[in-house]
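Retry 2 of 3 after timeout on previous attempt. Resubmitting C-alpha cells to design endpoint.
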C-alpha cells in the first residue's frame, strides 16, 4: 500500500512550501523546476543548487536556465512567479555541498521538500569522480536533510538500470554491488585502471549504474525518520506534452542514435530486435516525482517507484525504430534515402571492425564530397556514432522487465484533475503518436540550434 497524506490535490500539498532541488539545470531538473512553479501556483519558493564556474556565477547560470524555451508559458501567463526560483551556490563534490553558512541556514529553516536529481550521467566517468558526485553528493544532501527543521519528504532520482544483474527489477531495495570500503580501497590502490575497476563493478555495465546502486543503499540505510522516495526512471526521452510538446535539449541516450537512424546515417546496430525498448518521457518522470513527494510522505520505509513503460506498455527496439524511420520518411528530412535499421548481436571485436570499415567508407565519401564542394559530415558522424553505440551496446542487446505496480497504484489514487495535470501513467503513451512527437521535438529544439552530438552529460 502507498502511504499518503490527506491533501486534497497535488498543488494543495505544495501550497506554501519551499522546495530544494539539486540538478535543476539538467534535462530532468529543468522540467521539474518549471512544472513545480507552473502547476503549483501557491508554491512558496524553489531553491536550486547551482555550481559556479570560473566563467559563470549562479546568477548568470540562473539567467541561462530561465532563458530556456520551457519557461515561455510562465513568462506569458505569470512572469512574477519566476521570482520564486532562487539560486543557491553549491557543489555536490564538496563537503557540506560547499554552501555558504547563510544559505545553509535558509535551507534548514525554510525547506520542507528535497528533490535530489543532481548527478553525473556519463557512463564512462572515472570511478573516483562518479563516486564523488553520485555517492558522496547524495551523502552530503542527506546530511543536510537531517538538519532541516520541517522536512516532509526526501526524493532521490536514481535509475532503473542500477540493478541490471537481474532480469526482473521489482520496486524494492536490492543489496549493494560492493562494499563502499572496498570501492575506496580499489580507487586508492589502482586509481582509474580500467581492468581493476571492472572487477569491483561486479557485473555492472558502467560506473554510473554502479554508483547509483550504491547511492540507493546509502539512502535506504541513512534516511532515518525522513519519509523517503526513490524514483528509478528508465531511458528518459522527449516530453509528450510538457513543458513543450516534444521538448528535448540533449543528444544523450536514445536521441542521438534515433536521429542518425532517421537520417539513414545509421543502418546497422548491435541489438536484439525483440528486446523491450523502455522509454519514458521526461514529463512522466517529472510528474511521478512530484506526485510521489505529495503522496508518499507518511511512510517510515523507503518507497521505491520504477518510472518505466516496459511492463505496462511494451514496445520492442525494432518496433520503435521502425516507427521513427517512418516519421523521417513522412517528414522528408532524411539525408539519404530509405532509412532502415538492421539489428544484430556482434562480439565487441566485430563491432570495432564494422565501425572501422564504416568510418573508412565515410572518409572516402567525405573526400569525394569535398572535391565537388559539398559539405563533409559522414566521417565525423560515424565516429560519434561508434562512441554512442559503444556506451549503449550493453543496453541494446539485453532486455529487462521493470515492475511498476506501485506507480500504477499511485496513479489510480489520483483525482481525475490531478491525473490530467500530473500524468505519470505509461500505459497512456501511444507509441506511433509519440514517435512523431519525439521526431518533431528533435527537429525543433536540437536541429534548429545545432549542437554537437554528445554521448553523456552532467547535471551537477
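Retry 2 succeeded. Sequence:
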Amino acid at each position: 500500500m502507498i502511504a499518503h497524506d490527506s491533501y486534497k490535490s497535488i498543488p494543495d500539498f505544495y501550497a506554501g512550501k519551499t522546495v530544494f532541488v539539486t540538478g535543476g539545470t539538467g534535462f530532468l531538473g529543468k522540467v521539474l523546476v518549471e512544472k513545480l512553479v507552473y502547476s503549483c501556483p501557491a508554491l512558496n519558493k524553489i531553491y536550486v543548487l547551482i555550481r559556479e564556474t570560473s566563467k559563470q556565477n549562479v546568477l548568470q547560470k540562473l539567467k541561462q536556465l530561465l532563458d530556456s524555451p520551457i519557461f515561455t508559458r510562465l513568462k506569458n501567463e505569470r512572469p512574477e512567479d519566476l521570482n520564486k526560483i532562487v539560486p543557491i551556490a553549491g557543489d555536490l563534490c564538496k563537503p557540506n555541498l560547499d554552501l555558504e553558512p547563510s544559505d545553509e541556514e535558509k535551507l534548514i529553516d525554510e525547506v520542507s521538500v528535497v528533490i535530489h536529481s543532481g548527478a553525473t550521467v556519463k557512463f564512462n566517468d572515472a570511478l573516483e569522480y562518479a563516486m564523488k558526485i553520485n555517492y558522496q553528493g547524495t551523502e552530503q544532501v542527506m546530511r543536510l536533510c537531517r538538519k532541516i527543521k520541517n522536512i516532509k519528504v526526501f526524493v532521490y532520482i536514481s535509475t532503473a538500470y542500477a540493478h541490471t544483474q537481474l532480469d526482473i527489477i521489482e520496486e524494492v531495495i536490492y543489496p549493494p554491488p560492493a562494499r563502499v570500503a572496498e570501492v575506496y580501497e580499489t580507487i586508492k590502490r589502482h586509481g582509474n585502471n580500467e581492468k581493476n575497476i571492472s572487477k569491483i563493478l561486479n557485473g555492472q555495465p558502467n560506473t554510473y549504474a554502479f554508483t547509483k546502486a550504491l547511492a540507493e543503499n546509502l539512502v535506504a540505510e541513512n534516511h532515518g525518520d525522513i519519509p523517503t522516495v526513490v524514483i528509478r526512471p528508465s531511458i528518459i526521452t522527449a516530453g509528450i506534452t510538457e513543458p513543450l510538446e516534444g521538448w528535448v535539449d540533449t543528444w544523450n541516450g536514445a536521441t542521438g542514435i534515433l536521429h542518425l537512424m532517421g537520417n539513414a546515417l545509421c543502418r546497422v546496430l548491435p541489438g536484439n530486435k525483440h528486446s523491450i525498448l523502455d522509454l519514458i518521457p521526461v514529463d512522466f518522470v517529472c510528474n511521478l516525482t512530484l506526485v510521489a513527494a505529495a503522496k508518499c510522505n507518511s511512510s517510515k520505509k523507503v518507497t521505491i517507484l520504477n518510472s518505466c513503460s516496459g511492463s505496462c506498455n511494451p514496445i520492442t527496439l525494432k518496433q520503435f525504430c521502425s516507427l521513427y524511420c517512418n516519421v523521417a520518411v513522412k517528414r522528408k528530412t532524411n539525408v539519404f534515402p530509405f532509412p532502415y535499421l538492421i539489428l544484430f548481436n556482434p562480439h565487441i571485436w566485430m563491432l570495432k571492425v564494422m565501425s572501422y570499415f564504416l568510418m573508412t567508407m565515410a572518409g572516402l565519401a567525405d573526400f569525394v564530397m569535398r572535391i565537388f564542394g559539398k559539405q563533409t559530415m559522414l566521417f565525423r558522424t560515424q565516429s560519434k556514432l561508434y562512441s554512442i553505440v559503444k556506451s549503449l551496446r550493453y543496453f541494446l542487446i539485453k532486455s529487462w522487465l521493470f515492475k511498476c505496480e506501485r506507480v500504477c497504484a499511485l496513479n489510480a489514487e489520483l483525482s481525475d484533475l490531478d491525473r490530467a495535470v500530473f500524468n505519470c501513467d505509461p500505459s497512456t503513451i501511444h507509441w506511433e503518436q509519440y514517435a512523431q512527437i519525439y521526431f518533431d521535438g528533435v527537429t525543433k529544439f536540437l536541429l534548429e540550434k545545432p549542437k554537437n552530438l554528445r554521448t553523456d552529460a552532467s547535471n551537477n
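Attempt log closed. The CA atoms of residues 370 and 376 lie 6 Å apart.
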